[in-house]
Design a protein that fits this description.
Blueprint lengths: L1 E3 L7 E10 L6 E7 L4 E3 L2 E3 L6 H13 L1 E16 L2 E15 L10 E6 H7 L3 H10 L7 E7 L20 H13 L7 E4 L3 H14 L3 E3 L13 H11 L3 E5 L4 H12 L14 E7 L2 E8 L2
Parallel strand pairs: 1-14, 2-7, 9-12, 10-11, 10-12
Antiparallel strand pairs: 2-3, 2-5, 3-4, 3-8, 6-7, 9-13, 13-14
Helix pairs in contact: 4-5, 6-7
EC number: 3.6.1.55
Keywords: Hydrolase
GO molecular function, one term: 8-oxo-7,8-dihydrodeoxyguanosine triphosphate pyrophosphatase activity
Length: 297
């Protein structure tokens, strides 16, 4: 499982995407021209302070190309020095979905769609060629299944009453708001949750923006999770639901992720732990998981 830390520090942090359209076997890729540098590259830009890196990637792609996208696999980040400081740029594979109204970028004057071979010859920077190879090294048309651990909800021992009714605290509410800026990148249309209030609340801001119901399942709760049948149930959702997000507990999700990836993923996942408000993304195609990623909020 690859970890992607999300908050800019002294590092200059930027984010973008390799946006594709058409036949995933022979896609066209969006390149942008920046007149200031007279270069051809992939859409990207700086992550704002306090902005999740995924939200930053979505915003920058929209600003530079006018496109909304559906994110696929995370690609190897690019590091280079700029003005004596290290800069990291995180990229994702991203399928173009629709043209959206956005403020035009003053950094980009043209966007062109090109087939792979023409992209290779048009790119200005060598590292962008490595990104293009990484993009085409695994399937493009994957489907995301997200497993989300609920946000902070205070101390269990300080709560008086039914633990299923323990709500998010202020930090957890902030995490739920951040998660609502991340999930649009994956466009989950099915939302499934433990019935615990803190889990439902974690998905609620995203659900409200999309007018989506949240389906609750007692077998995802801490008290009723069944390790013998839970993974089969969730793998059934993975196979049937299309893009989906599930919210559960720290005592349930690591075992669930471990079992799902043991059955469906040819790679190795060393650590399946999720922090509160953390997200694991399983990208799958034809019943097999092809990439596993982990993000914090």
């Amino acid at each position: 499982m690859t970890d992607q830390q999300v908050h800019p520090t002294a590092l200059i942090h930027a984010a973008g995407a390799l946006v594709w359209r058409g036949d995933p076997a022979e896609p066209e890729i969006a390149l942008v021209h920046r007149p200031r540098f007279d270069d051809w590259t992939f859409p990207k830009g700086k992550v704002k302070a306090g902005e999740h890196v995924i939200a930053g990637a979505l915003r920058e792609v929209a600003e530079e190309t006018g496109l909304s996208v559906a994110l696929g696999r995370h690609l190897p980040p690019v590091h280079y020095l700029k003005g004596g400081r290290l800069k990291r740029v995180d990229y994702w594979a991203a399928r173009a979905v629709e043209q959206v109204a956005s403020e035009p970028s003053d950094e980009v004057d043209r966007t062109e769609w090109l087939p792979i071979e023409q992209v290779r010859s048009r790119l200005t920077y060598e590292w962008d060629g490595a990104l293009l190879r990484a993009l085409m090294a695994a399937p493009l048309d994957t489907t995301p299944f997200l497993l989300v651990r609920h946000g902070y909800a205070g101390a269990r021992h300080e709560w008086q009453g039914d633990d299923d009714l323990r709500p998010l605290d202020d930090n957890g509410v902030a995490q739920a708001a951040a998660i609502a800026t991340v999930l649009p990148g994956y466009r989950p249309g099915s939302l499934i949750s433990s019935p615990s209030k803190r889990c439902v609340q974690t998905l609620l801001p995203y659900a409200a923006t999309r007018d989506l119901p949240i389906r609750t399942e007692r077998l995802l709760s801490e008290t009723e999770y069944d390790a013998a049948h839970g993974p089969d149930m969730v793998l059934g959702w993975l196979d049937a639901e299309g893009p989906a997000a599930l919210c559960g507990h720290g005592k349930v999700l690591p075992e669930l992720i471990a079992t799902m990836t043991e059955r469906r993923y040819s790679g190795h996942v060393e650590d399946t732990h999720l922090r509160k408000g953390g997200i694991a993304v399983l990208h799958h195609k034809d019943g097999q998981v092809v990439a596993v990623e982990r993000y914090n909020t």
